Amino acid sequence: MADVDQRAGKEEPEPESEDEVYEVVDLTEYARTHQWWSTVFGNNSGPIAEKYSVATQIMMGGGAGWCAGYLFQKVGKIAATAVGGGFLLLQIANHSGYVQVDWKKVEKDVNKAKKHLKKKAKKAAPEINSFIEEVKATDFIKRNIVVSSGFVGGFLLGLAS
């Protein structure tokens, strides 16, 4: 009883060590109730985030990204070879005399095209912004951030392989 009376007389008991100041948090319960992607990207995180584990989502996105990157690499090589080969053949034909190029007309047409593109670029900016808003690609990425991250990583690996 003497201890209880002594404690009642004190307004604030001082902690004996720093460990008493901290609150113990059960991380598993906290993770179930406070999902990090909900706070960052909103409550509608999409059906993929709810059906599969994070590791499965990363593997699915990474596999799809690797396939896309690998195909992009192969098609890019073929396209570059075709364009470069065509340019080389035109240069050989020009040098051999099979093709005569009026370079003054080419320069005039290129300058005309530049002016036309500059005018169109100034007018196209509002159209591009409305197109981006219509597509809502950012909403998809926000809802499926883990799969999207896996896809980007896989795409880069596919380009490198």
What overall form do the CA principal axes indicate?
A: elongated
* Largest sheet composition: none
- Global Rg: 32 Å
Low-confidence runs (pLDDT<50, min 5 residues)?
none
Query: Which structural class do you get from the secondary structure elements?
Result: mainly alpha
What is the CA-CA span between the terminal residues? Answer: 77 Å
**Approximately how much helix is present in the residues?**
over 70%
Sketch the topology as an H/E string, one letter per element.
HHHHHHHH
Which band does the percent of strand residues land in?
Answer: under 5%
Number of helices: 8
Overall mean pLDDT stands at 76
Total strands: the figure is 0
Biased composition (Basic and acidic residues): 1-12
Protein name: FUN14 domain-containing protein 1
GO biological process, one term: autophagy of mitochondrion
Main location: mitochondrion
